Amino acid sequence: MSQERVVNVFSDTIAEMTWFEVDQAAKDGAILLWSFGVIEQHGPHLPCGTDVYIPQARLRETKKILAERGIQALIVPPYYWGINVVSGAFPASYKVRPEIMVELMSDLFDSFKGDGFGRVFCFSGHGDRLHNLTIFEGIKKGVERTGMDISFVSDTALLLRLGIPLNDPKVTVHKAGSGKLFGALTSSPSAFDEDDDAPPKFIDVHAGQWETSMMLCSCPDLVHDEVRRGLLSTDFGPEDLDEWRKGFEHARAKTPQGYLGDPAAASLEEGRRSLRLSAERAADAIEERVKQRAQSVR
Length: 298
Ligand SMILES: [Zn+2]
Prior knowledge:
Elements: H1 19-27, E1 31-36, H2 50-68, E2 73-75, H3 98-114, E3 119-124, H4 129-146, E4 149-155, H5 156-162, E5 171-174, H6 180-186, H7 209-218, H8 225-229, H9 238-245, H10 248-254, H11 268-297
Parallel strand pairs: 1-2, 1-3, 3-4, 4-5
The structure holds zinc ion.
């Protein structure tokens, strides 16, 4: 989480490496980490690339933890032309057809295979149901086409919401948490563990306390801090969330400013804690899968 240099979505990814370095990493058996965000409105205080910046920060942290455990990982430049249903009626919230995303993913998996990589871990940066189902479709297609070990790194609650079986070989399941991260994707109280803070009083799913905290930690210069301090919390429960999730004009009517949650309650400390925890949990699950598969090969 060093702040010495300008952090952008290419930081610490393959885009900053030479081909010689990438080639060597593939020969050394490095795994790939790839996030799937979207460009989407995030209220009056956060940039539209929030769902790209946050997962990239998480992957940088995950990569570091894996390296400490002897697992070399490269980060693929982020995917960011995704699917917006909820924010679909707001400006600067772009959507592509799911089949386009699936085909693009499939071509890139094929390129990774051509480079000699064998294992890809995919992460979501965006809670939209259709976006996440499409990531999973792309993974399925990638596995069929390349035979690589490709999986969706996710907590249980999101998989349940998507109807994906927890024992599917194309998922790498990790413990829930940092509470609000996966609460953000699911709003399910089961997404909160014992060791987390109590769930917030009202639902906080979009550009609210959790997401704003993550941005204060990973890209502070992009947060309009004066604005966010003055924003009132929304006071929504599960029924409001269902209405909001219908998307497009329903969501725009429900949250005219574009956020659902409590941005003013965000803090740098919470962001640091959430980022670290979410990276550790991803690293734990990845490490377990890598070791299991190594054993089954022996
Ligand atoms: Zn977001």
